[in-house]
């Protein structure tokens, strides 16, 4: 402890000691003033914070009320409710922060001022008093006459007692000063550090809260962009309609009222009429009449239940009334009563009389006719592009994706901490995560982990199948292979965030627990993969069919060539036009071709048997590496081996210089699996990387006739204008192979790109028809690949 005032110096009571005491007393006085001011400012801050929280609560209450008022709009209601909950959590965090400020600043510093500074002041009073007494004793001792011995003795005794008392008090005072100077440091720093930790906790909790809310905000942001575009379009349409209606002639508007028995709402006709009351005064009242369900009814207000005038129109008649004073009157007569009504004009009267007559005639018809009519309307409205007439399966979202992914063994708990019922996933690793671990994964960067919500985000079928191919159990066998051997503890639910974060970084960034294979183990693995390309045959029902071998054995049937060419030409023609209407035509034409292609005979046997690409054959490499393992695992469609190779440090765009500079993505194309391609693309594979022949993955997929892969690559930004060393683009290859599906996809993608460039910011995502068609092909490739297996692979020597 640093001594502010020296104990030896205080016994001398020297001027130096007095000057030090004076300086310390001034410093303590100023300290007390500053601490009092800080405490008052803290009290003001806390009061202002409470007022802020109170106003914030009222604001959140207003958001909740707005959400309840918008209950009919599910997007607004759910979003505002979620936002209100999050803001309420922030209010709770603010309350905790202000409570901590009150404890750490106000209470703690007030205690220091009241207790320690009070003791110092009391000690100062004693010191000042004894100093004065000592000064008086010294003066009295000096003034005692030499010849008065009793006065000398009395003065000497008083001085001795006073010095002794001064010695005790000054030592206590100096001790109090030194202790105070030391304690002020710890008390001030302790209170401020506690206050700063409260802020740290506050902002950390807020970050976690809004990290969880961020996917919903991103989703709403995307929807909002589309809503702005739609609103602008609707505004233009409404302005145009407004202008058109303004220019119309409303002088003959009475003729607009027509009888429609097939109206969707069941109301054949409706409008205002005057009705004569049946009371003694025969008053006339304007009411809203309608003919519905073979009844004539009227309402005074919209919320009122309709009053039935005629129960069954089959039992009544309608006639003109010319014998009363009012004009345009007609009467509906039933066996029990009659109802006199008045229209606004002669045309309206004739329209209503005709409507009642038609309703009477319709009421006598067999009700079965109406049922058949409804059946016909239903059948035409529920048709789809699928040949089976079933509604098409769309991208999964919410509970569907969650149930499918959590059904995989090991996925029911968080991959990293074991928290049950996870709601997040890393799509490039293929694992499920809890909310805390997902936030840590997101902080690693997308080059390590891409986080997506299992309940808030939309899941494309190939991505969902990727999740089902891997899973927590498979990935942990790779990334935690040496965990027990190294004695590392796996986090548990509820562990501090910094411990979980350190473990996740060690697991995925440093890959500390991955078991490195020996050269012999790697060689055995690579050779095994090169010879077992069908190791996933037990789970490959969803994969697109593999391309035929380089020298296929063609079946006879030369008479079918004309039909095949006709089908291809039809697809090409349907995709040639660049207008939006022709896009829809192309979609329906391809669906029709899907239905007919199942019975299409094979190509003639006279075609040459040349291979479109170099045959995939395993040669003993100069060196075995994780990149080579990834290369052959991609061809063998083994996602666990691919994940293992990436964990061992394989470059996802590794180039096999001994095999025409092919990449794992190109080998995945030859393996015929969309899921394998999706896994590589999610792990940053370059969709436009070319081999030695100048061909990228899109070239190879087109040559092999893998429609699903072509669709996937186009969605991921593949360059369809790239030409190989033979000046062949994917489109020219597809045209030569007469593959109408791929030609359609390539031309639609080109037209959509042109539309997007032309429309600019007004339509950043392109044409909706294009998106629907690509979604149809994606689902077909993932769920019903046999429909796309209609064409032979590309043959460059084919005439």
TrEMBL record:
Q: What is this protein called?
A: Arf-GAP with coiled-coil, ANK repeat and PH domain-containing protein
For this protein, the record's PROSITE patterns field holds: ANK_REP_REGION, ANK_REPEAT, ARFGAP, PH_DOMAIN
Q: Which residues form the Arf-GAP domain?
A: 399-521
- Annotated ANK repeat ranges: 660-692, 693-725
Q: Which GO terms describe its cellular component?
A: endosome membrane; plasma membrane
Q: Which domain of life is it from?
A: Eukaryota
Bias class Low complexity marks the residues at 379-388, 586-606
Q: Does the keyword Cell wall biogenesis/degradation apply?
A: no
Single GO MF descriptor: zinc ion binding
């Amino acid at each position: 402890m640093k001594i502010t005032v020296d104990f030896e110096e205080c016994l001398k009571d020297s001027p130096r000691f007095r000057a030090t005491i004076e300086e310390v007393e001034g410093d303590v006085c100023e300290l007390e003033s500053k601490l009092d001011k800080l405490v008052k400012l803290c009290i003001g801050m806390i009061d202002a914070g409470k007022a802020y929280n109170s106003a914030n609560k009222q604001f959140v209450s207003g958001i909740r009320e707005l959400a309840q008022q918008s209950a009919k709009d599910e997007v607004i209601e759910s979003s505002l409710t979620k936002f209100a909950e999050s803001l309420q959590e922030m209010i709770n965090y603010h309350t905790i922060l202000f409570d901590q400020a009150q404890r750490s600043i106000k209470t703690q510093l007030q205690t220091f001022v009241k207790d320690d500074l009070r003791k110092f002041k009391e000690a100062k009073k004693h010191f000042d008093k004894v100093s004065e007494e000592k000064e008086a004793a010294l003066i009295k001792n000096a003034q005692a006459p030499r010849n008065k011995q009793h006065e000398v003795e009395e003065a000497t005794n008083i001085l001795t007692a006073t010095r002794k008392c001064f010695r005790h008090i000054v030592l206590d005072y100096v001790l109090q000063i030194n202790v105070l100077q030391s304690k002020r440091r710890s008390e001030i720093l302790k209170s401020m550090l506690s206050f700063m930790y409260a802020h740290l906790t506050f902002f950390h909790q807020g970050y976690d809260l809004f990290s969880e809310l961020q996917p919903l905000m991103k989703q709403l942001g995307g929807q909002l962009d589309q809503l702005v575009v739609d609103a602008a379009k609707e505004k233009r349409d409404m302005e145009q309609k407004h202008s058109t209606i303004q220019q119309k002639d409303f002088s003959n508007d009475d003729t607009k009222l027509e009888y429609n028995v097939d109206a969707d709402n069941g109301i054949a006709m409706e409008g205002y009429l005057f009705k004569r009351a049946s009371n003694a005064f025969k008053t006339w009242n304007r009411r809203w009449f309608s003919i519905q369900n073979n009844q004539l009814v009227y309402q005074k207000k919209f919320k009122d239940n309709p009053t039935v005038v005629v129960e069954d129109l089959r039992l009544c008649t309608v006639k003109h009334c010319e014998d009363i004073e009012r004009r345009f009157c007609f009467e509906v007569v039933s066996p029990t009563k009659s109802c006199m009504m008045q229209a606004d004009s002669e045309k309206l009267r004739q329209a209503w009389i005709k409507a009642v007559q038609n309703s009477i005639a319709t009421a006598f018809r067999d009700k079965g006719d109406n049922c058949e009519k409804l059946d016909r309307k239903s059948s035409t409205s529920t048709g789809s592009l699928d040949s089976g007439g079933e509604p098409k399966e769309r991208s999964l979202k919410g509970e569907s994706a969650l149930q499918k992914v959590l059904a995989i063994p090991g996925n029911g708990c968080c991959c990293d901490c074991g928290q049950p019922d996870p709601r997040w996933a890393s799509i490039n690793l293929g694992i499920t995560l809890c909310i805390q671990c997902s936030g840590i994964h997101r902080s690693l960067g997308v080059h390590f982990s891409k986080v997506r919500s299992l309940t808030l985000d939309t899941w494309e079928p190939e991505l969902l199948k990727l999740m089902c191919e891997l899973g927590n159990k498979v990935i942990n066998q790779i990334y935690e292979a040496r965990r027990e051997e190294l004695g590392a503890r796996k986090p548990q639910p509820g562990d501090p965030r910094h411990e979980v974060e350190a473990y996740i970084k060690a697991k995925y960034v440093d890959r500390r627990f991955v078991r490195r294979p020996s050269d012999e183990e790697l060689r055995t693995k690579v050779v095994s993969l090169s010879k077992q390309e069908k190791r996933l045959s037990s789970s490959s029902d969803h994969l697109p069919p593999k391309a035929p071998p380089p020298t296929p054995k063609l079946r006879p049937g030369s008479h079918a060539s004309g039909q095949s060419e006709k089908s291809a030409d039809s697809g090409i023609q349907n995709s040639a036009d660049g207008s939006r209407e022709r896009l829809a035509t192309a979609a329906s034409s391809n669906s029709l071709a899907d239905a007919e292609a199942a019975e299409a005979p094979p190509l003639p046997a006279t075609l040459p048997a040349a291979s479109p690409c170099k045959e995939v054959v395993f040669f003993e490499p100069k060196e075995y590496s994780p990149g080579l393992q990834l290369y052959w695992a991609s061809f063998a469609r083994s996602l666990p081996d691919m994940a293992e190779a990436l964990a061992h440090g394989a470059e996802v765009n590794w180039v096999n210089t001994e095999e025409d500079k092919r990449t794992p993505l190109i080998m995945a194309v030859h393996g015929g699996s969309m899921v394998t391609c999706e896994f590589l693309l999610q792990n940053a594979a370059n969709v436009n990387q070319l081999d030695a022949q100048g061909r990228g993955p899109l070239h190879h997929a087109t040559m092999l006739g893998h429609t699903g892969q072509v669709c996937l690559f186009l969605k991921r930004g593949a360059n369809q204008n790239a030409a190989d060393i033979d000046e062949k683009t994917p489109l020219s290859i597809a045209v030569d192979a007469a593959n109408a599906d791929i030609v359609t996809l390539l031309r639609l993608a080109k037209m959509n790109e042109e539309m997007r460039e032309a429309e600019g910011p007004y339509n950043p995502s392109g044409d909706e028809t294009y998106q629907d068609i690509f979604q149809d092909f994606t689902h077909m490739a993932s769920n019903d690949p046999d429909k796309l297996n209609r064409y032979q692979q590309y043959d460059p020597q084919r005439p």
